[in-house]
Amino acid sequence: MVNSAHVDTAIRNYKKERWVHNSKRLGKEDSLSVWYSLEELQQFFEMAQENGADGVRMYFGAYDADYADQPLYAGRQTIMMVATRNRDTETGNVDKDVYVQTELGTSILAYNAGSYLPSCVQRLRWWLRW
Question: Is the whole model's pTM more than 0.85, yes or no?
Fold first, then answer.
């Protein structure tokens, strides 16, 4: 666990060093946070465990500039969660991505469906007061 000062400092640093530049480049405010319900996180974690995962790696990413599924997300950064399993290898322990069989074939066990807008707009405006 970390304290409020740590969280505040890390977010403030991110806004000054990365977010403001990303937003200028995009020509609109980039995402500052991603929200997931406890229920959807729990479902993802349960599915990960059922498929042998013992960890989750968080990847930073960005939607395509012309993301048709959610035009408000277009170009904005996001977070993807990927289920992982620790493996012993000749070079030491590594966390390998977990893959599962789906109707379409083999796929990485990952989740990326957090909320930005409209609920996050108010939170974003609150953070902008810093």
Answer: no
CA dihedral 32, 34, 35, 39 (to 10 degrees): -160
Closest C-alpha among 84, 87, 80 to residue 111: 80
Tell me the pLDDT tens digit for each residue of 95-130. Answer: 999 999 888 899 999 998 777 644 444 444 434 433
> Which residue stretches of the chain have pLDDT < 50?
117-130
Domain housing 91 = 33-128
8 A C-beta contact, residue 57 and residue 84: yes
Residue 22 lies in a domain: no
How large is the C-alpha radius of gyration of the chain?
17
d(CA 111, CA 44): 7
